[in-house]
Amino acid sequence: MKKVRLNKHQKLAVEHKEGPLLIIAGAGTGKTSVITQRVIHIMKSKWAKPSEILALTFTEKAAQEMVERIDLEMEYGYEEPWVSTFHAFCDRILKAEGHYIGLDTNYSIMTQAQSYIFMRKHLFEFPLDIFRPQGNPTDFINDLIKHFSRLQDEDCSPQEYLRFVKGLPRTNQEEKQKHLELKELAETYDMYTKLKIEESKIDFGDLIIFTLQLLRKRPSVLQKYQDQFKYILVDEFQDTNYTQNVLVNILILGIDYKNKRKLPRNLTVVGDDDQAIYKFRGAAISNILQFKEIYPDAKEVVLNQNYRSRQEILDSVYRLIKHNNPYRLEVTEKIDKKLKASSMFEEMDEDAVNLVVAGNNNAEAEWVAQEILKLTGHGDIKVEGDKTLSYDESGQSSLVDKSSEQEYRFSDFAILTRTNSQSEIFVQTLRYYGIPYKLGGRRGLYGRDEIQNLISYLKILVDYTDGIAMYKLLTMDIWGLSSREFVEVNRLAREEKVSLFEELERLWGIKLGEDDWKIEDLDVEENDVINNILSPISISSISDFLLILHNGLKLMRDHKPIGEILYDFVTESGYINYLLENESSENLFKISNIAKFFDLVKEFEKNNSGSNIYEYVDYLDYCIKVGESPTIDSSDFDDFDGVNILTVHSSKGLEFPVVFISNLVSDRFPPRNRSDRIPIPDELIKESLPSEVSSKEEHLREERRLFYVGATRAMERLYLTASNFYGNAKRKKKPSIFLYEILDRDLKEEFDSPVIGGVNESAKEKLSYYHKDDDIVEEGMKDIDTTKRVSYSQLNTYVDCPKKYRYVYILKVPSKPHASLSFGSTVHNTLKDLYVLLRDSKEGLEGIVERPTKKTLLDLYDKHWISSGYDSKAHEQKRKSFGKKVLSKYFDTLYSEDQRPYMLEESFSVHLGESLFVGKIDRIDIVDDSKDVLEVEIIDYKTGKVKNDINIKKDLQLPLYALFAEEKLGLKVVSAKYVFVEHGEVIEVDVSSERKLKARENILEIIEKVKKKDFKATPGYLCRYCDYSTICEDSSV
After folding, report:
1. For residue 710, what are the CA distances in angstroms to 304, 417, 419?
2. CATH of the structural domain 353-379+403-444+638-776, one choice from 3.40.50.2000, 1.10.150.40, 3.30.70.60, 3.40.50.300
3. pTM for the whole thing?
C-alpha cells in the first residue's frame, strides 16, 4: 500500500504521545488520514494494545472507513481497536454491563418511527391532557418524542425534570399555566421512560443516558473501562452533543470531572468549529469551543494546509466565516485558521468563484444544466424556440454526445440545495437535457417510485377510498393503461360519486375480497361502457389487477403476514418479471430496493409480534411524515458518471471539482428560524452559549457554517446561483446575506439584470412530462461486484446454484417469507439468551442474574417467537408447540450448567484476498483457560435436517470459523460441532490445521468463480424448493 505522507503539523498530531490533544482540522486538511494514522501509530509504537484504544465517530460510515484504512496498514490477523459510533459503543457497554442497573440486556433499539408507534400504543396511559387534545389525540406525539430526545441530549433525567417543575413559582395565572404544562410533560417523560424499560425497548438517546447512569452508579464498571482505554479519540468533535461530551469526560477524568482534576489521560479530539452544522440534532458547538476550559494543558495542533481547493475559493469562504467572530476558535485561541491551498491547479481564464442570477428558478436550473454541458464538451447544444427533442424508451434525451471530448466528467459536478424539495427543478432540467444524474437516497427508500407502488398497494387494502394510492397502482407500467383511459374511468367514478375502487367493482360486477371468482367467470367483453373507454388489452390488465386486489384482501382477512401479502402482489402482478425483462442498472437498482423493503417488513413483524397491516401502514405514514426513510444502497453505483444532486448537509465529507450552491436568496438559504413546538426550558439547557447571542443570531451563525461547509466541497470551481423569483411568488427575492459576505461587493446590478430568463414553454412541458422519480438515471448494464463482502451462506448459495446466487445477490429479487427461517431465527435467539443468562450468572452477578431454568428457556422462546411465513394460524401453533417440545428436550439432554459460554453470536470479518469475509459464530465455549492461549470449542446451531457424513466431511463453515476465531480472536479452537436442535443430535467437525487451510483454499476458489460471473443454472431436485423456480427458465420443476 502507498505510504501516507504527512505534513509537519499532521505529523505532530499523529506522534503526540501523552496528554490531551485538540486537533483543529479545517476543511480538506486530511483530518481522516490524521486520526487513522494516529491510531495506527499508537499500535505500532506499542503505546497501547489495540483493545486499549477507543475511537468514537459520528457516523457508521466514518467508523467503517477508519477500520478499513487501519486494516490495510496493519499485519494480517491483528487485534482490532474499538472503533465505533457513540451509540454503538454504548450499546456494546450496556449489552455487557447493563445488568448492574437492572436493564434487560436483550433490549431492542427503537427508531423515531418505532418510538411513535410505542407512544401511540400507550397514549391513553400517559398523564396527558393539554398535549392530548380530544379532537386529535395523536397531534403532539411527534413533538413529545422530540422534546424527550432533546432532554436526553442535555443529560436531563425524568427525576431532574420533575424536581425542576416542583420548584417553579405559581404566583400568577401565567406561571400556573406554565407549571401545569411542564408538570404534564415531566410526568409523561417519567412514565415513558419506565414503560420502555418494562418492555425492554430503548431509543438512541437512552443508549447514552443509561451508559452514564451505569458509570455513575457502578464505580467498579467505570474503573474497568478507565483502566482499559489508554487512548480515546473522538472524531468530528464539533458534532457531539452535551451528553456525549459528558460521557467522554467521565471516561477520562471520572464522575466529578468539573471540580476534580485527575492526571490528564490520553484524549484526542478532532474537529472544526466552523463546520458545526448539526444544532438541529442537538449538537453543542460549546463542546469544542470550551474544550480547553476542562483540559487547560491540552496540546493544540492546527491543520490549515488544504489539499482540496483553489486558493481563490479558500479566500472567499474565509471572508464569509469571519462574520461568525468572535465566537470562533480562531479568535478565542488566537490561532490562524485561514486555509492555505497545497494542491496545484492549472491557470483558469475566468474566476474560480462566480455568481449567476437568473430571472426565475426554471432559468436558474437551465443555466446550471447548460454550464455542465459546456464544461463536459457539449457546449454547442442549445434548445431554442420549439425545437423538438427525441427521447428513448426510458425518457433519456438524445442530446448528450457521450463520445465527445470532455474537460470534466458528469460525476465531477455537484448541485447543492438547502432542502430536498429545492432539488426537484434540477432533476427535471437535467433529465430534459439528457444529463445523467444521481441523488443517492435523497428522500430515502420510501420516496422511490418502486417502493411507493408497494406502499400504495398496502394502503388500498386498508382503505379502498384512497384515490392517490389507487392512481399510483393503476398507472404502473405493468398494466399498460393510457392516461386517457385512466381519466375516463376516473370520470365515471366522479359521476357516480364513488371511489375509483368502487367504480371498478361496479363496472366489473364483482365484490373484491368477498365472493370467490375467476377471470374466466367475468363477462366484461359485453359491457358497452367498458368497451367504449378501454382497449381489450387494458380490460384484460384491469381484470388481472382486480383479481390481485381480491386475493390481497382475502390474505389480509386471513391474517396472513404483511410480507406474504406483498410477495403475492409482486409475483402475481408480474412486477418482478417486468423489471427483469430489461436488466438495466436502473431496474436492478429497483429490485434491490424492493428486496430491502421486504427485509424492513420482516424486521417490523419481528419487532411487533401480532401486528397487522393497518398498524404497518400507519407506521409507514409516520415514517414518511417525519422523514425517517431508510437510506438506499447506491454503493454499486459509486463509479457511475452522473451529476450529484444532494443537500448541503449530506455533502459533508465529500469533494467535487465543480460545485453549484443554489437558491441563494433570503428565506431559502438561510431559511427562517423555526423553534420547537414544545421547547425545553432554558434552565434545563446545559450547553453554555454567550448570553448576548440571541437564538436568531445563533441560527444565522449555524446557517453560515452550513454554507461554509457547502462552499468548501469545491475543488476548482464554485458557482453561486440565485433567482429573482421562485415558484409562483410575485415578490422579488432579496439576495442571501451570505452572497454579500463571500463576494464582498454590491449585488444590485446583478440582481437587476439576470443573465438568463425563463425556459421556453415547449421545454417546460417536456420537463414535466419526462420527469421521473429516479435517484439514479443511466443507460446500459453495470457490472456489480458482489465479492467485496461475502459470507458463508452467500457463497454456499453459489455452490447450490450459480443462477440462484444471481437472483439473490446481484438482482436481489425478494423471496417469500419462510416458516423455516422464522423458526430458525426464533431458536437461535432463544438459545443465545439462554446462554447469556448462564454466562452472566457465573460472572459474579448472582442475585442480579438468576441461573436459567427450563421455564426461563420456554419464556424466552415465547418472547422471541416470529410469526411470519406460516401457512395459517393452525400451522403456526402446531410448529410453535413442536418447538417447545424440542427445546424442552434440548434443556434436558444438551444443556448443562457446567457449560462455559465465552462468546455468543460473535461477529468477525477477515480479508480473504480482495474480499472481506464476514460471519457470526453462534457460541464459543471455554474448554481450558489454564494455558497461555484460551482453548475453546465452537458450536453452531442448525434447525434443519441432520447432515450426512459426506456433507460433514466437505463442510467448510466450521473449519473456516475456527480458522478466523484463531486469527482474529486469538483463541485456540480444539473442537467444533453442529447441534441439530430439532433432532437432538450433535456432530463433530474436523478442524485440524490441514482441514482449516483446505477450507480457506476452497472458499477462495468459490470467490474466484463468482468473480468470473459464471451464473449458469444447475437444475436438479433443489429446484422444487427454490423461490425463483417460477421465474427461472432453467428450472426443472
Report:
1. 18, 9, 13
2. 3.40.50.300
3. 0.75
